Amino acid sequence: MxxxxxxxxxxxxxxxxxxxxxxxxxxxxxxxxKYVPEKIGKSEILNDIKISAxxxxxxSMLRMSxxxxxxxxxxxGCSMVTFYQKCAQYKTTxxxxxxxxxxxxxxLCNEQWRKMMSxxxxxxxxxxxxxxxxxxxxxxxxxxDD
Length: 146
Hints:
Strand content: 15-25%
Number of helices: 5
Order of helices and strands: HHEHEHHEEEE
Largest sheet: 4 strands, antiparallel
Distance between the termini: 42 Å
Strand order of the largest sheet: 3-4-5-6
Number of strands: 6
Radius of gyration: 17 Å
């Protein structure tokens, strides 16, 4: 775990200790970081708290998967062709985007990326946003556009 995350956890523990005396329903450290996967490559956007929140929304079969950074605009350039090539051998991918205002959003795609003129995917796919916080908001498939 990075020193920044350890410091954040330490501060949260102190705050949670105070909150628990006043509010027994306050989240604990175990609630904040439930899943920490093995990682190949480091995310420049997601911290362990955000990763854990995302994993808790994954289908159960994916929760213990190893995370591998396969495409980064900072390292691979800004090319959809490169994106498709790098993602071609993976069935399940997590797209993570940070815009110029610092908002983090993306989606879980449970099938290979391909060019399409219509929607595709399964009910396990979802979109998400963190806005500018560690609070995750998930948007799931509704079937309304079928």
